[in-house]
Amino acid sequence: MANAVRRRTSADYSIRLGSVSKTYGSSKSAVRALDAVSIELLRGTFTAVMGPSGSGKSTFLNCAAGLDRPTSGSVWLGDVELSRLGEVELTEVRRQRIGFVFQAYNLLGSLTVEENVTLPLRLADRRIDRPFLREVLTAVGLGEHGGRRPSELSGGQQQRVAIARALITHPEVVVADEPTGALDTRSSRQVLELLRHVVDDMRQTVLMVTHDPVAASYADSVVFLADGRLAGELTRPTPEQVAARMTHLGEW
After folding, report:
1. Which end of the chain has less Cβ packing within 10 Å, N or C?
2. Which residues lie closer than 8 Å to 215 by C-beta, 6 or more apart?
């Protein structure tokens, strides 16, 4: 007799949004950036978020990562409901359980690669796990560059430092906002391959906002937003399929 398929539980998901809405302003000038968005992201998966300008991508990312509070609805990071936390608790959760990668690398020029990577640990007064630091630097291709400063690195290498910094705290999820937006084609490909490696080999969960169909094609699934609402999803699509869907969304 075949084994029954295991029913998924909340523990299988890194991020869950339940009917999340976000409104900016009040009365007649109010703008609804998100409109009752519900989604669940499985652990160890790579999800890209796309949509036209003004579709709510940044608001979605900010709410999912605890950088902004929804007007209504719930946001869960693992077993913690972010939308119920106070500011101090929320800051602690972001620092310890979410890794951030932005278009701007946000590295400190006076610090070495190793010092930039371990900065979140030092700010939290946490012990630096040297073997894991070496593992992370090797994983991002910077094992021999720990003593260098950002000015001695290419743009792609600097973004790799930012990814290593996001990984060093063993986060629940890595949130990437246009991580290849400032890079040339070759460096972009290397960073995207690294994010794919982070998911496949390090079992991390990655949530990425991008405007680039090629970047989105590296993800396991691409979620589309339009006018603050979910507007479909593609699983392991080609860049051409993503571009076609985006063209359709422009008329949506």
Report:
1. N
2. 48, 180, 188, 192, 208
Give pTM, 2 decimals.
0.91
CATH code, 233 = 3.40.50.300
User: 13-34, pLDDT tens digit by residue?
Assistant: 999 999 999 999 887 788 999 9
Burial of 9 (0-12, 13-18, 19+ CB in 10 A): exposed
User: Is residue 3 situated within a structural domain?
Assistant: no
Range of the domain at 59: 12-249
Q: Which two tokens stand for residue 42?
A: 């499985």
How many domains does the chain fold into?
1
- Residue partners of 133: CB distance under 8 A and separation at least 6: 114, 117, 118, 168
**Rg of the chain, C-alpha, whole Å:** 18
